[in-house]
Amino acid sequence: MTILIGLSSLTFLHELIVHPDGTTYSWVPDWNIEKTLTDTNGKVLGYSQYYVFLYFLLIQVYSLIAWLGWFSVSKSKPYRFALIIGVLSSFYHIILILSNSRKTDLNSFDLKLIGTAIIFCTLFLIYYFFEKIKKAKLEYAQQIFGHPAKKIITSQIILVWLLIFIASTSPYVHDIITARGGVGVKDWIPQLGIEKLLTDTEGYVWGFNSYRAFLLSISLQIFAQIGWAGWLHDSAYKLYRPFLVLPVGLSLYQIVIILFDQTNSSMNRPDIKLLLIMTIGAVICYFYFFKNKRFNSNSENPNKMPQSVHNAIKNN
């Protein structure tokens, strides 16, 4: 639980370390990290502030952990290879941030989109190759036992692969929709008036200084949420599964904060969010311990449990 509480705090850890004005809190050890990363123009690896740099780096690390965790528990799922796309997407953006390459051609959306498509096709072909071998074995079993061979690759599987591919573009969907340094959406995007609807009288888009920044923040949170929700869904029978509710719930909380324009409210304060995940974590831990304590107590006293359950425990 402690590890998952720590991981859940990655989305707002920058708020616990650095003030919005860029100065670090007094309790943080002075390791001169900010000074080392700051260039002669006052940029921290291309970001305007250390605060902003930490936010985008940590949300990418948060997403990477989620997609890696999902991949680790999806061993029997037909979309397991597709999850590698999400893992590589987060990893690539972390490399771009740490190497200060965000404003180079390596960060162009067309290069990333083409690369994602190539990786998608390659992984799908590998998956198809292994599934074809599996189908051949099933057809051989059919000849021996008379059972019909299963259809390996279905339209539902292809759809899931495509959805994962689309989700993997979330970290750079803002580059596809908006121009870097520009105002508004690109010319080929239909003018639906969403930006105008979300912009207040002071020019802020739902609390962000631009529509591009809003899209980047919300898409990164959604990308992380998909990874954590997938990990929770596929982690059946894992002892830590109940505690995955913490990062899933926090990611959903962050999305709600953004969508309801509450980024500057007390609901978005780091101490409130930390208190929230610790409280929920304590409740989950209590019921988890209580449930297991009852089960262990019943296993020691077979008269308190059904005979079938007692026999299953005894045989194991």
Structural write-up:
The structure is a single chain. With 316 residues, this protein is mainly α. It starts with a helix and ends with a helix.
Could you write a compact summary of the structure shown?
The chain contains 13 helices and no strands. With 316 residues, it is mainly α.
How are the elements arranged and paired?
Elements: H1 2-8, H2 13-17, H3 33-37, H4 50-73, H5 83-98, H6 109-145, H7 155-168, H8 173-177, H9 194-198, H10 211-234, H11 245-259, H12 270-300, H13 307-315
Helix pairs in contact: 1-11, 4-5, 4-10, 5-7, 10-11
CA(first)-CA(last) distance? 28 Å
Class per helix and strand makeup: mainly alpha
Which stretches are poorly predicted, pLDDT < 50 over at least 5 residues? 312-316
- Average pLDDT for all residues: 84
List keywords for this structure.
316 residues, 62% helix, disordered C terminus
